[in-house]
């Protein structure tokens, strides 16, 4: 590389929270760009509530990544950006696939050698190593991934999950081997991961953020009868059956 980025990694206000593959999560200890007493007061309480700006840095070395549309802040180096769409048919498939899963129609590909910085966020950035597996991801969490992963759209097993549970019919899925970055509503330290072995998990609410595609997902009454469901006070619950894993955000229901 023939470039140097100064005052980023060598900045005393910046810490590296996590690094996996070509992805690095940066966190800013304080927001030094406040310009008013009101902003300064808000920043003080935010910093004491674990609310720090985070930024995803991606380093390419003759490699390629896929990214959420509009997420790029700046790039340095010799890279080319493409849509990954080769014809009109691909554009139509991408549009409907993105609309169905709520992830955006076109996800740009960046290929070459250099460094990419994404827009800062107050949400939490997760780095997930998908190791010859397939995971289903809740709408809106996708940030970026290595193109060794296959990104697709997974349909729900039946209509009940959409009609009864207020969920969409489709979700984004990632399969194969590679790293994916997600923008989550909670820190990874707060996530509860349930491992099922031919068993079932019932969740009252939409706070399952990610799950193995091997699981069968439905929405059902919490009791065997309508009266039983009403008596329990739960009504409808999301049910995951089979063998696999479910990532839950128990302290911040995902919406």
Give the rounded overall mean pLDDT.
83
Sheet with the most strands?
Answer: 13 strands, antiparallel
Total number of domains: 2
| Helix/strand/pairing category | mainly beta
End-to-end separation: 42 Å
Regions with little confidence, pLDDT below 50 for 5+ residues: 86-102, 227-234
> How many strand elements?
13
How would you describe what is shown here?
There is one protein chain. The chain is mainly beta. It has two domains: 1-129; 186-255, no CATH class. It has four helices and 13 strands. Strands 1, 2, 3, 4, 5, 6, 7, 8, 9, 10, 11, 12 and 13 form a 13-stranded antiparallel sheet that branches. Strand 1 (14-20) and strand 2 (23-28) form a beta hairpin. The longest helix is centred in the middle third of the chain and has 14 residues, at 88-101. It is globular, with a radius of gyration of 20 Å. The protein starts with 13 loop residues before the first strand and ends in a 7-residue tail after the last strand. It comes from Paenibacillus bovis.
């Amino acid at each position: 590389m023939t470039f140097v980025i100064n005052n980023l990694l060598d900045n005393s206000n910046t810490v590296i929270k996590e690094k996996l593959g070509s992805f690095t999560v940066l966190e800013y200890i304080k927001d030094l760009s406040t310009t008013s007493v009101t902003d300064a007061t808000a920043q003080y309480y935010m910093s004491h509530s674990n609310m720090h700006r985070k930024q995803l840095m991606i380093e390419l070395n003759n490699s390629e990544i896929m990214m959420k549309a509009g997420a790029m802040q700046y790039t340095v180096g010799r890279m080319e950006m493409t849509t990954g769409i080769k014809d009109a048919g691909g554009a139509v498939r991408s549009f409907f696939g993105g609309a169905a899963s709520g992830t955006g129609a076109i996800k740009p590909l960046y290929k070459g050698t250099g460094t990419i910085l994404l827009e800062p966020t107050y949400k939490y950035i997760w780095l997930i190593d998908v190791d010859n597996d397939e995971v289903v991801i809740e709408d809106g969490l996708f940030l970026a991934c290595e193109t060794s992963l296959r990104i697709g759209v997974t349909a729900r097993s039946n209509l009940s999950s959409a009609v009864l549970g207020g969920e969409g019919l489709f979700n984004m899925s990632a399969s194969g081997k590679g790293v994916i970055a997600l923008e989550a509503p909670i820190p990874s330290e707060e996530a509860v991961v349930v491992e099922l072995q031919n068993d079932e998990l019932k969740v009252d609410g939409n706070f399952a953020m990610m799950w193995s595609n091997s699981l069968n997902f439905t929405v059902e009454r919490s009791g065997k009868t309508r009266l039983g469901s009403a008596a329990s006070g739960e009504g409808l619950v999301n049910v995951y059956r089979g063998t696999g894993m479910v990532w839950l955000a128990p302290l911040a229901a995902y919406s």
